[in-house]
Amino acid sequence: MENLSRRSFLTSASAAVAGTVFLPNLISCKPSNRLNIAVIGVGGRGSASWTQVPKESIVAMCDVDDRQTAQGFKACPNAKRYKDFRVMLDEMHRDIDAVIIATPDHTHFAAAMACMELGMHVFVEKPLCHNIWQSRTLKKAAKHYGVVSQMGNQGHTTNGIRLVKEWYDMGLLGQVKEVHAWQPPLNNNKSGAFYPSTSFPPEAQQVPKELDWNLWQGQASERPFNKVYAPGDWRGFYYYGNGKLGDWCCHTLDAPFWALDLGMPYHAEGKQINPIADHTFVSEQSLVTWKFAARGEKAPVTMKWYEGFGKPEVRPEWGISELPVEGMIMIGEKKTLITGMRPNDARLLVPKEEWEEFKKNPPAKTIPRILEEKPVQEWIAAIKSHTLPGSNFDYSASLVEMAQVGILAQRFGGEINYDAKTMKAVGRPELDIYIKEPARKGWSYGENLW
Asked: Which pLDDT tens digit goes with each residue over 255-277?
């Protein structure tokens, strides 16, 4: 990218106004109040996001796979079309206010950093990025460049997650020392996005003519193409995705992370039932345990993630005979709370009569609600009102970093004593290369912030 005067202004101005919420994008407050939005990743989750901004102007669309773009190009015929976001930003940096990024996990970071360096507001699909160093750097960058950031975990906009925090804050649960979340096993060993059935490593295949495989790989190390990767099943390969834990933690563990103010774990442990010898692929059955220290008057917390097997034991005071197939519980000294894998629904685990009475006389709501419970629209509103949305990078990067500590334990097994200050797995230097993964030539971003 050329060394733009606009970027230089943003950097110096950000330093001058340190302590403010953010520095507004210089071109976002047009008389029409319409934002010029670019999209990186047009199909799949990208489509779910850009279709939510009909009142804004989508001026550019970028995707490396022509098989994914037909709907977007048809809906936005005036948007300029690109395959390489770096070219798009070089040519259109003066015409873009904000960018929606919905590519595979391993390319989130480079795209988000390139946009923020140009002062563009960014919305990034969950999980935010691919390793701990990237999480920490995105948090730094959002503040340094003064942009409005948002991770696309829909649950953070819901009424349900607000109920969880309100009930905990008012003391309804008492001290919470245990959190459990569980995912069911695969049905009949069917393949899927997280555990696709394939040989290891996947054999080299011909690259489809519609796909730019080099651009698709982005920062990741080069590998031969196989159709198991693109467009759908990359999530189960650790060199591209973060597995089921990385993907679902942004929903399932969001509520306890926020409500309990967990911060970073000091310890994590991973157990795999059928470990993968070379650690490149997600095991179908695993148990991850994090430990969090006391936070002021809040008690220490042990949190467990059961993937593909197991659940916490049902306790008599919960008033149920068994737990649902999937979900999350926060066990308090007074009461226990349960949600599904998303925090949309939240209820107390108490006898039915007590729960019905509670619903008739609920406590007051103290946290503002998001009208349509959509993170893209919350982000757009925040840009225009010069505020920050709830899952801005200062929050969401920490949520994802916490999960990434667990992912390392899940992937490599054993115990990790995590030093959050130095971003180190103490005594396990072999994990350093996964905490900060090397980037291919031409794809390095963020080093200037350290």
From this structure: 999 999 999 999 999 998 887 87
* Cβ proximity of 185 and 409 under 8 Å: no
User: How many domains does the chain contain in total?
Assistant: 2
Structural domain for 68, as ranges:
5-156+375-392
pLDDT in the model for residue 32? 67
Token pair in block for residue 426: 């103490």
Q: Do the beta carbons of residue 96 and residue 61 sit within 8 Å? A: no
State the pLDDT at residue 423.
98
User: In degrees rounded to 5, what are phi and psi of residue 399?
Assistant: -60, -45
Looking only at the bridges linking them, the beta strands covering 286-292 and 346-348 are unpaired
Alpha carbons 291 and 253: distance in angstroms, whole number: 14
What pLDDT score was predicted for residue 9? 32
Distance CA 221, CA 259 (A): 38
- What would the two tokens of residue 356 be? 């019905």
Exposed, middle or buried, 198 (CB in 10 Å: 0-12/13-18/19+)?
middle
386 is a domain residue: yes
pTM strictly above 0.85: yes
Helix and strand counts by DSSP (H, E) for the chain = 14, 15
329: CATH: 3.30.360.10
**Low-confidence residues of the chain, pLDDT below 50?**
1-31, 188-190
Residue 192's φ and ψ, nearest 5 degrees, are -165, -175
For residue 166, being part of any structural domain is answered with: yes
Structure tokens at 324: 């649902």
Query: For residue 65, what is the DSSP state?
Result: B
Residue 90 lies in a domain: yes
Give me the CATH number covering residue 132.
3.40.50.720
